[in-house]
Amino acid sequence: MGEREQAGRLPGEIVEVYRPPLRREARDPREIIEVYRQPDRREVVEVYRRPVPGRRADRPRPKARSRRYGLYCFFLCVGLLVGLTAAAKAVEVLRDQLRPETEIVVHERTEITIPSWPVDQGAGLAVSREPGEILTAQEVYRRLNPAVVTVQCLTGEGVSIGTGVIFSEDGYILTNHHVVRGGSECYVTLDSGYSLDVCFVAGDENSDLAVLKVPPEELALMPLPALPSAPFGDSEQLEVGDPVYAIGAPRRLRGTLTNGIISAIDRDIEVEGRTMTLLQTNAALNSGNSGGPLISDRGQVVGINVAKYMSDWNRDSVEGLGFAIPSAQLERIVNDLLKWGEVRPEPRLGVQVVTDAEGLLVKIVDPGTAAQRAGVREGDYIVAAQGQAVENTQDLFRVRRTLYVGDTLTLTLRRGGETVEAVLELDEAAE
């Protein structure tokens, strides 16, 4: 949902663009402003002048057969029109696809040359398992909006505009990778209108996440001692129907709040050729919302908005189909980026499990894997992993997200009436 300026304009459109310079000493704190003046829309009047009576009195009267022929032509045209309309709708349905909400989908320049910030500085993203109290929409906005920023990056194609969320008081910001892709300079605008230069820490194109950092010299110019930060909550506690909110800068309208519900959980969607498992919401998302927070009614960030369904035939014909990266995925990915500058793969366990009335059942043990070597059997029930109680697949995946290739995993199993332990040597990466 990052947005890039385009060279082409509508016929007759007059555009005035004000873009603040990126240099601090000359920067005006106002954000980008575009003023559109459309030409006056005047009515087009068609005048029908009747022939003077009597001038064509000698014209022969059309025959009845000619009228029938005209009627046939009329119905034929109507049929063709209906057919073409149906065909257009069919083409629209076939061509519907999910895209990050950005006005430029093909990026010729993908290298990020934004000034960098070093990794492994002790920073981290924490996701709370405590839900907190339910808040009103006004309370959610007052608490979260100060931690939401508008991200603007200078690229070879113009300016890419998206949204970001501050997750630490010392200036670490999370946004989408496609917002900063191809960027050479970048700055963020706070809800107060104050602008700050930012550095690029790390990003991952597959997960479409990137981390930015406000350098200390920029923070020193702030009137406040620290930046406001947003709390992150556990997306695995969400259920379909739960209310959510989105804050961002759609179409450059900074600080816009929209609301909706969780429409689906764990929705596998293909985005630009890769499959992502996302939260689905009907909260309105538009150009500029990319990288912004999806917020629960507890005032916690539970996702990062990344995409919406659009139609190639009619960009405005699909509504209420937005998607966000779940916070349960964010914690590992962001902390990997902060520590190593890249996302390290999760380890493969080698079991296929299902949840039934008795717990988490091992249905299949893949041959030659860590689970088979550790003695895990089909029909076992996984009771605990690394000492943490396990009741469903989400519990097991939560433990796996804390592990890396080379680590060991201790599973507590219920086998018949006995309790046994299996220690898995995780020497293989998950696909």
Oligomer: single chain
Structural class: alpha+beta
- Tally of strands: 25
What's the name of the CATH homologous superfamily of the domain at 236-326?
Trypsin-like serine proteases
Percent helix, as a range, is: 10-25%
| Radius of gyration, taken over Cα atoms and rounded to an integer in Å | 29 Å
Describe the 3D structure.
- This protein has 431 residues and is an alpha+beta fold.
- Among the domains are: 29 residues; 91 residues, Thrombin, subunit H (Beta Barrel), CATH 2.40.10.10; 75 residues, PDZ domain (Pdz3 Domain, Roll).
- Helix content is 17%, strand content 34%.
- The chain is built from 7 helices and 25 strands.
- Strands 1, 6, 7, 8, 9, 10, 11 and 12 form an 8-stranded antiparallel β-sheet that branches. A 6-stranded antiparallel β-barrel has the order 14-15-16-19-18-17.
- A hairpin with a 4-residue loop joins strand 17 and strand 18.
- The radius of gyration is 29 Å and the shape is globular.
- The protein starts with a strand and ends in a 6-residue tail after the last strand.
- The N terminus is likely disordered.
Give a quick set of tags describing it.
six-stranded antiparallel barrel, Thrombin, subunit H, globular, Pdz3 Domain, 17% helix, alpha+beta
List the helices and strands and how they pair.
Layout: E1 3-4, E2 14-18, E3 33-37, H1 64-95, E4 97-99, E5 127-128, H2 137-144, E6 148-155, E7 158-166, E8 172-175, H3 177-180, E9 183-189, E10 195-197, E11 199-204, E12 209-213, H4 216-219, E13 232-233, E14 243-248, E15 256-271, E16 274-281, E17 293-296, E18 301-310, E19 322-326, H5 327-340, E20 351-356, E21 359-365, H6 370-373, E22 381-385, E23 388-389, H7 393-400, E24 408-415, E25 418-425
Parallel strand pairs: 5-13
Antiparallel strand pairs: 1-7, 2-3, 4-18, 6-7, 6-9, 7-8, 8-12, 9-10, 11-12, 14-15, 14-17, 15-16, 16-19, 17-18, 18-19, 20-21, 21-22, 22-23, 22-24, 24-25
